[in-house]
Amino acid sequence: MKIQTILAAGAMTVAAVAAQNAQAGAVLDGIKAKGFVQCGVNTGLPGFSAANAEGKWEGIDVDVCRAAAAAVFGDANAVQYTPLTAAQRFTALQSGEIDILSRNTTATTTRDAKLGLTFVGINYYDGQGFLIPKALGVSSATELDGATVCVEPGTTTELNLADYFRAKGMSFEPVVIENINEATAAFFSGRCDVYTTDASGLASIRTQMAENPADYVILPEIISKEPLGPVVAQGDEQWSDVVRWAFAAMVEAEEYGVTMENVDDMKANSTNPGIQRLLGVSPGMGEALGLDEAWAYNIVKQVGNYGESYEKNVTAKLGLERGLNALWTDGGLQYAWPVR
Amino acid sequence: MSKPQNAPGDVRSKGLVDYLNDENVRAVLYQVVAIGLIVLAGWYLVSNTLYNLEQQNISTGYGFLDLEASFEISETMIDYSAQSDYATALMVGLLNTVKVSLLGIILCTIIGTIFGVARLSSNWIVRKLATVYVETFRNIPVLLQLFFWYALIPSAFPHPRDALEPLPGVLLTSRGMYLPVPEPDNAYTLMTIAAVIACVVIYFVRKWAKKRQDATGQPFPMLLAGIGIFVGLVLAAYLAGGAPTDMSMPALKGFNIQGGYNISPEFMAVLIGLTVYTSTYVAEVVRSGIQAVPNGQWEAADSLGIRRSIALRKVILPQSMRVAIPPLTNQYLNLTKNSSLAVAVGYPDLVSVSNTTMNQTGQAIEAISIFMSIYLGLSLLTSLFMNWFNKKMALVER
């Protein structure tokens, strides 16, 4: 009898705890309670996310996290960073170790639907390319038959690589190293003929990590579509909305010409109803998202608009022009959903 | 409690309290409760995990094993391509783990024994050198040693275009070592069969030789005879198979060296790293084993006029084995488990392939459960084998 009672009580406690553990809508509450956003970033990809000489994280991916923090707390510095390899990133997000994954991650069906994730925007439109030493005299990816290729595991890059060589009837030998620094070191030491990843990543490796960038060329072929963007876990729609609109606000600010410098002036003087809505002069947007009305103002003031973030991180560090990432009005693909 | 006592001797109708006070009943009861709690805890963890995964819309199950892997693996011992399924990919990883572990175990035993004996040498230089070797490599974390070897190998050798050729057909490059191998031929199957037969023959000859020595005291040159039987039989099979001479020679073609057998820098780094690291522990095990044999054994052998080298081989080492085998088993298990660090230097072992699988499918729990069970299985197999070996070597009490 007694034993049965104990067992029953035990089972009940267990059931109660189990029910407590998974609670929808908990992410944003958790972030507010702890006072900062836990942001998963690349272990080191200059232009996207890398620690600078002072140990501060910067890059276009880092700015998405900073924008989210600015929207929630009014303080873009309320972010803590977790550097992750490609293979670690989704587990970290699924387990709740990080609140947002902003790590040059390609949006795909499997990831969105099967891994319990939500892609909330595309902050960089990219495609996969090949980096190769000039000395090899190769001018096209179609000449790569039999090459040894360095690639990071657990990436779409690894799959595209196999697809591309299979489609072209060529063979290759992969060298798969998880840590990007180890992988690039292997490439520069001559272990591989070719390094493959997204074209922006190649530019980053070439300009920031090669001893002499002029010794390396990026081949003209772009073999895939790589829409890179921030990801959150499914289950807290309010939090995914915050991140989605924090990024949209950056693009919208650029569309309206609102910059870090003129944002105070715009807030005080602009008569454009769109700008007034964005900056919280006419209230409503903040309330809709469960945030302060100055959410977008804080983003632009502290992080800057999308164009500023791109200019500061990608153009200045990697020398890459806007290309696909120009605003739609300039013939690019960046097109913010209207904040209204 | 209030229940009246039953008549003495009527065991069957004892009250509940008496029943619970029975020592035997209690012993069983405690065990039932303990098992119950463990099962409950396990059930809680599993059901809670499943519930949470479902809440987060993460798909579960092992169905992904049949899907196409679509990634390539550099070193495969079985047929594998990007079109193969995940199960095959994991098999490739497992075989690579087994390959590097098995070779590592054999090599670390040989090297470790040499250094273990050398540490007890009467020669000062040999003794000190062995001590330096053991103390250096034992005290540096094995992961750092792997990084060290992996950084060293590609940068120490030239690009395939200017490959070093120390022996004809053997190429040393930053992409590893290339060895010439014979082209596939039926003769080699025949030779393998001959090798197996040779081993069986040697086993029986050895049995006979031992019997004879026990009976007459006459020793038999087993080593020479063994080599003779093995080489003779295999050579005969080679000749019978038509003595093929076609070799696949490694040579530069396009980007890489094609043909021959490639030992990749990743494999070399892992094998050297694990072997060197574990051999230091094996050396210590061997040294302690030898020192555990009483000095009287040396003196007894001496007084019979047995040379020191033979005394070591025939008297001391066999006895030290009894002390050494259990800790040696530990080292073999450690080496196998440490091989999972191979993922850091890009050797496609089980963990590396599982990590990729996990990441491409998102099935983290499933992938981890697979490689954990496989490592457990490998370790249990090693233990079983070593326990059997230990029993065989143990002193037979008379």
Automatic annotation (TrEMBL), chain A:
Q: Which Pfam families match?
A: SBP_bac_3
State the family it belongs to.
Answer: Belongs to the bacterial solute-binding protein 3 family.
What CDD domains does the database record attribute to this sequence?
Answer: PBP2_BztA
Question: Key word Manganese present in the record?
Answer: no
Task: Give GO BP annotations, semicolon-separated.
Answer: amino acid transport
Origin organism of this chain?
Thalassospira tepidiphila MCCC 1A03514
Query: What superkingdom heads the lineage?
Result: Bacteria
This protein is called what? Amino acid ABC transporter substrate-binding protein
Q: Which keywords fit this entry according to its UniProt record?
A: Signal, Transport
InterPro entries linked to this entry: Bact_solute-bind_prot3, SBP_3_CS, Solute-binding_3/MltF_N
Q: Does the keyword Membrane apply?
A: no
Where does the secretion signal sit in this chain? 1-24
Q: Which part of the chain is the Solute-binding protein family 3/N-terminal domain?
A: 36-266
